[in-house]
Structures are given as C-alpha cells and as structure tokens.
Amino acid sequence: MTPGLPPRPLRRPLRLAALLVTAALAGLTACTGTAATDPTDNSSASGQADTSLAVGATLEPSTLDFTASSEAAIGQVLLYNVYETLLRIDQQGELQPLLATGYTLSDDRLTYTFTLDPKATFASGTKVDADAVIKSIERLKPAVNTNVSAPLALVAATEAVDATTVAVTLTHPSNSWLYDMASTAGIVVDPATTDLAQRPAGSGPYQFSTWTRGDQITLTKNQSYWGTPAGFDEVTFRYFSDPNAMNSAELSGGIDIISDLTSPSSLSAFADTSQYQVIDGTTTGEVVLGFNHTKPALQDRRVRQAINYAIDRQSLLDTVWGGKGLLIGSMVAPTDPYYEDLSQTYPYDPEKAKALLAEAGQENLTLALRVPVVPYATSAAQVIASMLGQVGVTVEVSELDFGTWYTQVFTDGDFDMTIVNHVETRDIVQFANPGYYWHYDNADFQALIAQADEAAPDEYVPLMKQAAQLLADDAAADWLWSFPSLTVARADLTGIPQNSTTTSFDLTQIRSKA
Amino acid sequence: MRRAPLVAGLVIAAGLVLAALVSLVWTPYDPFLVNGADRLLRPSLAHWLGTDRMGIDLVSRLMVGARTTLMVGVLAVLGAAVVGVPLGIAAGMRRGVLSDVILRASDILFALPALLLAILLVAAKGASVATATTAIGIATIPVFVRMAHGATLSVMALDYIDAARVAGISAPAIALRHVVPNIGPILGVQASASFSTAILAEAGLSYLGLAASAATPTWGRMMRDAQDDLFLTPWPALVPGLAIALAVLGFNLLGDGLRDYLDPRLKELR
Amino acid sequence: MNIGVTLARRLGLFAVSLVGATLVIFLIVQTLPGDVAQATLGLNATPEAVAALREKYGLDRPAVVRYLAWMAGLVHGDLGVSYISGQSVFSQIRPCLAVTTWLVVLSMPLALLCSIPIGLVAALWRRRWQGAIASGLSQTGMAVPVFFTGIVLVVLFAVESHVLPANGYVPLTGSRGDAGRWFSHLLLPVATLVIAQSSLLARYVRSGFIDVLTEDYLRTARAAGWTKWGALIRHGTRNAAVSVVTVVGLQIGAMLVGAIIVEQVFQLPGLGSLLLRSVGARDLPVVQGITVLLVLAVLLLSLLVDAAYLLIDPRLRRGQS
Lengths: 514, 270, 321
Known about the structure:
The structure holds three protein chains of three kinds.
Chain A: H1 16-26, H2 29-35, E1 52-57, H3 72-78, E2 84-85, E3 87-89, E4 95-97, E5 100-105, E6 111-116, H4 130-140, H5 146-152, E7 155-162, E8 165-170, H6 177-181, E9 187-188, E10 206-212, E11 216-221, E12 234-239, H7 243-251, E13 257-258, E14 276-291, H8 296-299, H9 301-310, H10 313-321, H11 350-359, E15 366-372, H12 375-390, E16 394-400, H13 402-411, E17 417-422, H14 443-454, H15 457-473, E18 477-490, E19 493-494, E20 511-512
Helix pairs in contact in A: 1-2, 9-11, 10-12, 14-15
Chain B: H1 4-25, H2 58-93, H3 97-111, H4 114-125, H5 129-156, H6 159-166, H7 171-207, H8 219-227, H9 235-262, H10 264-269
Helix pairs in contact in B: 1-2, 1-9, 2-3, 2-5, 2-7, 3-5, 4-5, 5-7, 7-8, 7-9, 8-9
Chain C: H1 2-30, H2 36-41, H3 47-56, H4 63-75, H5 89-124, H6 129-143, H7 146-160, H8 179-214, H9 216-223, H10 228-266, H11 271-281, H12 284-312, H13 314-320
Helix pairs in contact in C: 1-12, 5-6, 5-8, 5-10, 5-11, 5-12, 6-8, 7-8, 7-10, 8-10, 10-12, 11-12, 12-13
C-alpha cells in the first residue's frame, strides 16, 4: 500500500506473531518497510541528535488565548516556556526573578517598583522594556478570564520610571497580588502580536509553532533567547484522553514524558529505573469533598464533622490514588507559605461520627453525592459511599459529565456533596465568597481573609494560617488529599519539574544527558 | 450435535440468570463494601476470582454485575421490541403512506446509531444504567421494525390470510391471531441476537465512560475501572471481560440454535 | 425501466429523512444542560463573565431562531462556526473526517476479504471440524468487546515488542505528512476493526451460502452437470452477496461509530474523538455538524445499498415495481 518505501533495518527483533499479522494485514511485501519503521515518534535514541521531546498530557486546551479561558492546560504549555512574567514561582512556591531582577515595595504597600533585566527581549527581537510591560498590563486588564482580570483590577496606575524600571500602584495593599503576577496574570505579551489565540508570542526560551487540534501542540526553540538556551529544538505536547493510552505510549517509546499521570496504580509499569524515572511532587490542587451549605443537614457543624470523622482519608488515598499525594486537612497546598499539616483535625473515628450524627438527630441521613466523571472523583465517591454507609449515612452517588456538573451542581446548587480537585493557586479565598457553589457563609472567615490580604507582609502568613485553621475547625469541607504531581520520564532526562506550583509544565530546565 | 449450540446457549443463559437472581439474596462478600486492605488480590480459596482495586470480591461483584448487565439487555431489547414490533407489523399489513412513514422514521433512527444517541443522552442526563438502557433500546427499535415488517410481508402473502380477510376478520384480529404467532419464532431469534449486541454496546459505552456508575456496576463498568491496573494485574479486567464474551457467545449460540431448530429447511437437510 | 422511478422515490424520501434528522439532532443537542461559556471560564468565573460570553455566542437567542439560522447555513453548505476555536465547523471536521474515513475505507474491504473464506468454510463444512473452527473463530471475534481487542493488540505489538506505535496519528499528506508513519500508525486500529467486523460478516456469509446449499436450484444445477464448486460460485456468491451487501450497509453506520471506540483506544484524532470532546466542551455547532454529517453518510450509504440491491438481484427489481 505504500510502494516505493525503502526497507529500513530492523531496530529490534520482531516477534514472529507480530510480523505475521502485520504482513498478512498489509499484503506482505508492501508493508515490510513500514513495519520496520522506528515506532518512536522522535529520533531521540540516536545519540547526539537529541533535539526533540514529546510530552504526554491529559487535557488539551480549547484555546491558546489565556485571556479568554481559565483552563490550566493553556498555562501548562505556554507559561514560562513561551510567555514569561516579571517574577516567577519556583518549585518550592517561592518568588524568583525572571524578567525583573528584583522589586521594591513602598512603605504604604501600594507601589511595587520592578527593575527589568536589561538583556530581556521578546522572541521577535523587541526589547522587554518598561513600555512593553505597561502595554501588556493594559492589554490584559479587560480579560474574560477572571484569574487574569481580577488581580489586574487592583492596578490603579502604572509608570515607566525609565526604560528598565516599572512602577505599579495598587488601589489597596494586597499580599496575594505579587503571587498572582508571578503566574498567568503577570504574563508579559509581545506588543507586536495581535492574536493571542493563533500566535501566542512572548519572551520565553520556546516559541509556539503549530497546533493540530485533538492531537498535539508543537513548540520550537527560541534561537535568540536572552537567557539560558532551551534544551530541545522542538517540544511536542501530545494529548491523551485515555490514561492507559498515555502509559502505552510512554512504554513503547512514543513519548518521552508523562507530564501528569492520572492512574497512579500503573506506576509499577515504570519500575525499571534504567529506563524510567518517576517524579513524585505536589500541585496546588486540593481534592475537596464539598458540602452544600444551604442544605439544613449540612448547616449543622456536627454533621460535617461526623462526615470528616467517618472518612478514613489515608485508606481512601491508598485505595483511590495509590497512596500518592498528601493529607492536608484544609484548603492549603503544601507549597503555599501558610501551609500547616491539619490532617489530624479529624482522625478516623467512626464511633465518634455516629455519636455526632445521633447528637444532631441525623441517624437516617441520606446525601446526594454528585461527582464529575473524572478518575479521582468517581473512585473516591465509591469509597466515600462505602465509608459513610458504615456510620449509617446513605450516599447516593451520581456521575455527571463536566458540562452537566457545571449546571446541576455549580450553578443550580442541586447537590448535597461533590468532589472536585481545585487546582487554582491560593483558592482558599473562595470560602470567603458566599456566592460560590458551596455557599459557605462565615463572617469571621471572610473578615480574616480580607484582613490578611491587606496586612503587612509579615502578618500575612500567621493570619492565613489562622484562616485555614478556622476552616478546618468548622469542617467547612472535607479536604480529601492534596493532588500529587506524578511525572514519568525517560531515565536520561534531567531538570524535570517536581512540584507544580503554577499551571506551567516548566520545560526550561529539561535537558537530555545523552 | 445439531442441538449443541442451542443447548450450550441455554446453559450459559440460564447460568447468568441464576447468578443474577442469587445475587439478590446472597453474594460471597458485600459487593459494595470497600476494603482497602484486600486490594487486587489474586484468585485464592477465599476469593475465587480475586479482588478488584477497591478490595471487593470479584465473584460478588460479578454476580451483581450480571444483574445490571442482564437488566440493561432485557429492558433495552424488550422496550425496543414492544415499540418496534407493532410498528413493523402495521407497516407490513398496510402498505402506503403509513408504511412509508414508519419505515423512513425507522431509517432515521437507524442513522443515529446507539453510540451517538448515548453520547448525547449521557451528556444531558448523566451517565447511568437508565440512560445507557434508553440509548441502546432506542437504537434497537429499527432492527425490530425491519424484522417484523419483513416477516409480516411474507405472512401476508399466505393464502389463509386472504381467506381471513374475505371472511371479514378485522386487521388487528388478523395481526393477533395469525401474524404474531407466525413471526414469533423469528422475533425470538432476533431478540436473542439483539441481546448480545446490547451487552456489547453497554460495554462499549462503559469504556467511553457513558454508562453505569460504580454504584450499579455492569461488567463493562468493571472492565473500565480495572483498566488502569492492567499493568499491575490483569485479573480484574479479564474476569468481567470473559463474562461479557461468555454472555455474548451464549446468546448468539442461543439465537443460532433457535433459528436452526425452527428452520424446517435446515431440519430436512440434516 | 422501473429502477429509475424507484430510485427517484428513494431520493425523495432521502431528502425528507435528512430534514427530519436535522430537527431531531437540533432538539437533542440544544437541550444539553450546561453551556460553552461556563465550560470555558471554569470554577472561578463570575456570573457576569459567563453571561457576557453567552451573549457573544448568541446563546441568549430563542431556540427557533437558532434552528432557522442553522438550517439556513446548512442549505448553503455552511455548518456554522465553532464556539471554541472560532473556526468554521467544516474546517474543524475535515482533518478528523480524513482520519475516520481512512479507518473505515481501509478496514471495510479487508473485513470483507477475511470474512468470505471464513464464512465459506463454516458453511461448506458446517458439520465437520473445519466448519466448527471457522464458526468458533467468528463467534469468538464477535463476543470480545472491540476495545479489549485493541488494548490486547497494543500490549502485544507496542508495549511488549515495540514493533508498532501504541497510538497516535500522523497524516498522510500535509506539512506533517509521512506515508510510512501514517501507515504504521493505522495498522493496529485497522486490525482491531477488521477482527470485529469480519467476525460479524462471516456469520452472514455463512448463512448466505447455507441458504443456497439448501435451495432446490443448486441441486438442479448439480443434476444438470455443474460441479459442486461451479454451482456454488455461480449461485452462492450472488446470493451471499445480497445478504452481505445489506449487512455492509447496516454495518458501515455501526462501523463509523465503532470507530469512535477504536479512536479512543488508539487516541486517533478522528470524528469520534472530536465529537466526544465537543460534547464535553458544549461546542454545540461542532456537535451538530458532526451528527448531521454522520446521518448524511449513513442515509447516503443506505441509498447506495438500495441501488446495489436492485443491480445484484433481478428478482427484487421486479418485486419493487
């Protein structure tokens, strides 16, 4: 069927059966050339010509325009790789210089003055100067994506002090603003680009090349990068809607990295350390068993605490997610500066749960658990239904398509409990918004969050710790576990990011040893 | 030998029905109680087929799965037959506009295959046994319309139907007294074959995450849940997979056996 | 002479069916809960931002207006514009259509080719071991869920032996085009479909030949001096062809959709994947566009099957008049 293809030498001994079936299918001779083709998509195995990298990922973005959509999948590809920010968040959750070498904060905590790296240029060759930064802020202000527009709404004024100095004045002091600006909201866009959806252009070590919808996005090396050059000429993000297929691709050499493994029990397939490395880190995601606080039964704190006592989270994590991930106990990711281990607030105690339920007069409680069809949620729901059943709570589980989930659960509030991995950074503040789908309305907590954000930087962390503790004591939700970042990579790759502190899959440090 | 397929089919079908019925009153272990300590055990005396990723005994789960799987098949096929057969008979007995409308509508339905319907239905109503059954049932209607239509046409060509008509017997009466008994056997064969198709369709829908939830497991759903552990241990995926294959084989054999048994021409030949 | 009339009538019904189908599709698709605005904006979106986006997509217009607008576009061959990519639905579908078409076009003839010998053996020696094996093969092939076959093939040929790629797709032409890699990426998916389809077809081939074997004219033909094989080939193939053509017609619809599962197993960016993705994202114009195209394809094929019928079997030709 493909006549004229020269037969290539076999790389591996072919299994007889494979050859026979292959040959029978293809009409014998015509296909031998193809059957012998190296199935690995990148020519990486051939030594020094190691210039391309294939990365498997789960969710494909629906658009590349980060101002139009809040999908984490956009940042996964573009943030820090194609786009850069003034400061960036490192693997430990600390701020590090990027386009800006440093900043100062005024005494009234309203004005940030950034010093730009004089070397910084966009991939197009234009200088990243104060004007470009200000233009970018103005451009992103009206973004539809609230993760971008909300922090920028705090910006009262910008000023180009000189070519490499930008002063940004806020409407009121905010401790979270600088962190937001180190992520998607702080992206500095090349003023020359007109279409962020088709031609994303920034100052990063990689440039956007092509996007085959439903399949892959390709980045190429920015040859004139102002910092440390990229490790590969080409990086391809390939999208897999089926975790098993992504594992097979890694195992058969079709991809080099699984950037976000969603079937932890399959890790044993990558146990051979001479071929693979498994990197186990943290993300900013908290898997939340959320309560609908408008339901009378769940307005009773004793019922919420009983549910917390009745769920053996360690066993849940072992069963559902192969024991990968951390028990947290509140809405704080392990890399957040105000993180504290609150996982022992409600140790597993079914008797206490029963007692609390009896005290609340809820011995015959029935709760609707509506979860989106994603692996962690459906599996966790099954376990939780079983565990709550042990303390006399009947759980009716239904699995909803994410679109339907948005309508039924998120918008219409037609649920008692639900499970979602909340991946946004520092999203503890959502509990201060009574309009949010949990409808958690606690004046003390709201006051605490507002106070913390405007407080002096050294008061921020203690106040936030207090807020997280308050949430845990009030059993505002059941925080099941902190979502792990599980990455599988070819053994010879270095610089694979361990923790996902932002949405970015940071390619900038990845190199091949070969 | 001649009746071997029929007997084999009957035995398999009876076995499945029995397993499903017994599961209503007894299973070796609680099929819904998650047991973290016993995850992914290999087959042993305590657990004949091992346990799944939730530590649930696979025999128990399989029995409960038989219940839902058979229910999906029975309800889908029965529903499709109840709607499709009368339409098919009507189209076969009265040629003309009615017949055209019925057959065309059935064609449109046929053009919207089960999977497509299921994808849309599930998006609208959420994944459940009910939506999967509905989708498979609706998609099976045209099969029965066509089958009943064709069979009715050949019955209507028989002389005694003309005689009945001349005698002034009403159309519904003819349909009940003469058509239904005549086309009954062939519909039985079709029902058996459709049943196999329904089980496979359910497995396919489950694979795509469009069918049963874990609370009402079907064999398809069990396979899907076990898929991630395939590299760890193949048991939890193989067990429901073999159950599906056995059921499909059984009902296909039953259908073939029935047809051979009922087809006089083949009787002569053998 | 009557063929023309019959075909014209079929064509008319075809058009009516198509319009009916669009209405059904629109009604189902538009009643999906949730919408693209919420799906795009995510968990942190404000209600105002969602409302603004809904307005931008015209989701606030009444359903009748949206249906008529869609139909007006369809008449001009315009399937509309995707909410998500902002590109025309057709340009979105085209590359995916190519993938699915290749799958079907490559696997259907192969399935036929494989099914005929199996079915023939099963029919001729149906009371001997050869026939039992052939029937057993076809029964087993039918009984195994298609995704299971696919996964087993991936494990055997990609994960264990690295002979073929586990999944993914490389286009045949275009900037990323590569004929060899296109072929190697399609081998396993096609094999999966062929195994499932040929098993099913073999059953019909078998019963088609058995019918002939039992019919009087075959005995007559043999009495008239034809050899067994000569009679079989002359009458058997024609008779078997009638039932096979019917089944192929019915099967292609099933196959297009069966391809969705295969696309999922092998992560091929075909129509099925696009459909699943678009339903998930509530990109309704794309969902409607794909559905209409699928229905159109199935209706067209059944039209062709009807025509093929008339050509193969002269008895039916008379029956139609």
